[in-house]
Amino acid sequence: MKEIFHMWIGKEESETFLQYGYFTTKLKNSNLRIISLNCFLCDIFNFYLIKDPTDPFMQFEWLESVLRRAEKEGENVFIISHIPPGDTNYMSECSKRYIAIVDRFQNIIRGQYFGHTHYDEFKLIPEYFNPNKTVGVVLTAPSLTTYSFQNPSFRIYEMDSDSKIVLDYFQYRLNLTEANEQEQEPEWKVAYTAKEVSRL
After folding, report:
1. CATH superfamily placement of domain 2-141
2. Where are the domains of the chain?
3. Taking Cα atoms as reference points, which of 151, 148, 143, 89 lies closest to residue 121?
């Protein structure tokens, strides 16, 4: 995996990925930094969490230092990973630490993109000391796989190229029942757009 990632993220970050499973990279010719977290460090089935339940492999210390540098250099940030914080499979102590960091750096975090749940959902990230105020949104896209009894889905985001703020997204779905009844290429259809839903 390190050799594959090396082509996209460079030598230094591929070494970080090899050692810890997390990395960061800056999109060429832009001020957008992408931070990829190793969510499996906070997976409840990771028994090493008994030893260090709040910052396994110093991931959150690293995340905070990357965000501080990004803030200083005027960068915008996308955070990506698999298991979203707040999920039942994500250690609660890790979730608390993540929320505190997002609260602090809400001014530069432009998007948080996760998967794992196989559901089409979002979660509001509350301010750390004020749960009535929202400081971010975790966008969780459904899966291409049919687990469990879901139609395959994928999502395309529309983003403002300057601010890096998501303007809309298009949620595509494949009706498996319909596709299996026809002897032709499956047809992906837009199930909805975020803007359409927000008007309801």
Report:
1. Metallo-dependent phosphatases (3.60.21.10)
2. 2-141, 145-200
3. 143
